[in-house]
Amino acid sequence: MTTVSVCVGSSCHLKGSYNIINLLKEAVEKNQLDEKVEVKAAFCLGKCQNGVSMKVDDEIVTGVNTENFSEIFEKYILSKVK
């Protein structure tokens, strides 16, 4: 199972991490990946200056926003589980 942790620390929260969590949950459901992807919240991932951060298994992805979410989901999550 792939684990995706989205930072909800102060900086990421202010930059929209809860929107990213919602987009992530929707994308997992839409792609029927409930059995393959676990979505979690994480406190600081240590990359505060780069926008919303998320950790996909052991890889940290920074600068996630609503505009680039689809591209990031495809590159870092879909490609890993399919």
Notes on the protein architecture:
The chain is α+β, with helices and mostly antiparallel strands. It has a single domain (2-81), classed as Glutaredoxin, CATH 3.40.30.10. Helices cover 39% and strands 28% of the residues. The chain is built from three helices and four strands. A four-stranded mixed beta sheet has the order 2-1-3-4. Strand 3 (52-56) and strand 4 (59-64) form a beta hairpin. The chain starts with a strand and ends with a helix. The mean pLDDT is 95.
Write a brief caption for the model.
The chain is 39% helix and 28% strand.
- Averaged pLDDT, please? 95
Count of extended strands: 4
Q: What is the 3D shape?
A: globular
Strand order of the largest sheet: 2-1-3-4
Q: In the CATH classification, which architecture applies? A: 3-Layer(aba) Sandwich
Query: According to CATH, what is the class?
Result: Alpha Beta
What share of residues are in beta strands?
A: 25-35%
State the end-to-end distance: 12 Å
Topology of helices and strands:
Elements: E1 2-7, H1 10-14, H2 17-30, E2 37-42, E3 52-56, E4 59-64, H3 69-81
Parallel strand pairs: 1-2
Antiparallel strand pairs: 1-3, 3-4
